[in-house]
Automatic annotation (TrEMBL):
<protein>
    <submittedName>
        <fullName>Uncharacterized protein</fullName>
    </submittedName>
</protein>
Length: 60
């Protein structure tokens, strides 16, 4: 969890939302979905968060 003391300003969060829209539809497992996950992992890491995203794939 990111401590409140290092939370980005609202302008940064707004920029993240705008960036998220550039990925287009983010259907599970799609390239856009994977890119959005990586984007947030990178942004959270810049804030000092060592978040681990558990990846899984649904089976038929």
């Amino acid at each position: 969890m990111i401590p409140i003391s290092v939370m980005p300003p609202k302008e940064k969060v707004s920029a993240w939302v705008q960036r998220l829209h550039t990925f287009g539809p983010r259907y599970t497992g799609s390239a856009a979905h994977k890119a959005s996950i990586q984007f947030f992992a990178d942004e959270f890491a810049k804030l000092g968060d060592k978040q681990h995203f558990t990846k899984w794939e649904a089976e038929d």
